[in-house]
Amino acid sequence: TGILQTYELNIEKLDLIKEIERPKSFKCGTLGASQIRTNTIAIGDFTGKLMVIDFEHNVPVFEVDDAHKDIINSIDGISGGLSINCGAPEIVTGSRDGAVKVWDTRQQNSPVACISANVDDDSGSSAGRDCWAVAFGDSYNSFDRSVCAGYDNGDIKLIDLRNMSLKWETNVKNGVCGIEFDRKDIKMNKMVATTLEGGMHVFDMRTMHPTKGFVSVVEQNAGQALGTNGIISGAKSTVWAAKHLPQNRDVFVSCGGSGSIRLWEYKYPSNRVKKDSDNFEQGVAGTLQMIHATSLSQQPVHTFDWSPDRLGLAVCGSFDQTVRVLLTTDLNLL
Hints:
Blueprint: E1 2-10, E2 13-22, E3 26-30, E4 40-45, E5 50-54, E6 59-64, E7 72-78, E8 90-95, E9 100-103, E10 113-115, E11 131-137, E12 146-151, E13 155-160, E14 165-171, E15 176-181, E16 190-195, E17 200-204, E18 216-219, E19 225-226, E20 232-233, E21 239-245, E22 248-256, E23 260-267, E24 273-275, E25 281-283, E26 287-295, E27 301-306, E28 313-318, E29 323-327
Antiparallel strand pairs: 1-2, 3-4, 4-5, 5-6, 7-8, 8-9, 9-10, 11-12, 12-13, 13-14, 15-16, 16-17, 17-18, 19-20, 21-22, 22-23, 23-26, 24-25, 27-28, 28-29
């Protein structure tokens, strides 16, 4: 079964105030396309169903039973909350069936955009890879918007939704578990992609070279465990997600498969653009500085969210089925 629980933070404890149950297990959810006073959440489940649930009244306000042919691995939303002048509220989903679909909840049953591999006519099977991660970005006005998708074979594809075209693609040589732009509602600035075996790639998205694409800085051991003595060591471990601080887009947290999380700050170079030998502009990668690391669980921390209202307040979930509320101090000094 799929269970959606709503908690209220009451001093030093969490009080369960609402619980919703559905027959099929939930895989992912987002509040990104939800307006502040609507109390709705978009959810993808293990059967490929997409639904938007009003969790205050326990009623679905949008449902597509066969949104995908298989499990919906990842979901993201945009233009909810306080976002203004950045287009219509939309939801993007990525699935094991290889498809990436964009949904407008005002349009029932069919997506407004679908990006998928060609289907083999003889076998009926898709040549597409398993899509593990999706994210909106570059939505700085009412017309422009992009979606970035990450796949199990390390492919990353950036799709321009305005022109419905593939803008850029690369391969990071390991399955992409998480993708996030530092801000969704500005011109593309930076994007973080996290992978299996401890990989973390921070791309400078401001300058695209015609052949080399976007530059990046890579951290290969971002998922390693934190020992009792505070020393980071051990085998490489999956980095499940990266989440940027809403109040400072150059600070983000990474979630490790070892049960640890790390706080990072991206440092820009003195010049972000240079000319190559052919006089084409190309980006210059910055550097990553680890600010802090702590161990929260013996199991992977796979999801994390910052509070947009309270600097440093956050919540995370892990495979030990525990929800933890965190407080990070001195972030205003970074």
